[in-house]
Amino acid sequence: MANLDIYRNDIWQYSTYIWNTLFQLEEIRNDMAWYPLIPTLCIVIEKSLKWAVLNAEEEINNGEVNCNTIFKYSFKKIIKEALKKEIINSNDAIFLNNLKDIRNNLFHDFDPANFLEIDWKLFPLTENDTHIKIYDDCIEIASRIILKTLKN
Q1: Which is the most buried residue in 5, 27, 57, 100, by most CB within 10 A?
Q2: Contact partners, residue 117, CB within 8 Å, separation at least 6
Q3: How far apart are CA 75 and CA 73, in angstroms?
Q4: pLDDT tens, 60-119?
Q5: Please, where are the H alpha helices in 5-127?
Q6: Taking each helix axis from N to C terminus, what angle separates 37-56 and 75-84, rounded to the nearest 10 degrees?
C-alpha cells in the first residue's frame, strides 16, 4: 500500500475536504470495504481537476462556482481540458483515462463475466481483492495528480 504521508501535508494546505476524503479512503481500504474505493477516488480526482480548470478559466468567484459551469464538464472532457491548459501532462492524462475506463467498466458497463487484465493476469471485477489491487496501484499516482491540480 502506498505511503500517502508525502502528499497529505501538502494536500491539507489546499483542501481539507480532499484531504479528509483521501484519509477516509485509506480507512475504507484498511477495513477491506472495497465498493466505494474506485468511484470515490475518481470523484475526488474529477473535483480537483474541475477546480483547477475552472480556476484557470477564471470561472471561480470568491470560492464559489456556478453549478451550470461545473456540470458542463464530464470526466473525459475535464481530463482533455486539464491537458490542454497544461494542468496535467500526457502521462497523467493516460493514467486518468485508464482509471476512467476502469470506473466505467465497473459501474456503467458492469458485467459479472468481465475481468480486468493486469500484467497478463485476469482479475474478476466482482472480487474485493480486484478493487483493492486497483486502488493500491492507483492511489499514489492519483494523490500526486490531485496535489498538482490543487497547487495550480
Answers
A1: 100
A2: 123
A3: 7
A4: 555 555 555 666 778 899 999 999 999 999 999 999 999 888 888 777 666 666 777 777
A5: 5-14, 16-30, 37-56, 67-70, 75-84, 90-107
A6: 40
Q: What is the pTM of this model?
A: 0.78
Instruction: Look up residue 68 and give its three cell numbers.
Output: 451550470
What is the rounded distance in angstroms from the CA atom of residue 136 to the CA atom of residue 133? 5
Q: Note whether 11 and 147 are within 8 A (CB).
A: yes
Contact 4, 139 (CB under 8 A): yes
| Cell digits of residue 85 | 491548459
Buried b / exposed e over 96-113, threshold 16 CB at 10 Å, is beebbebbebbeeeeeee
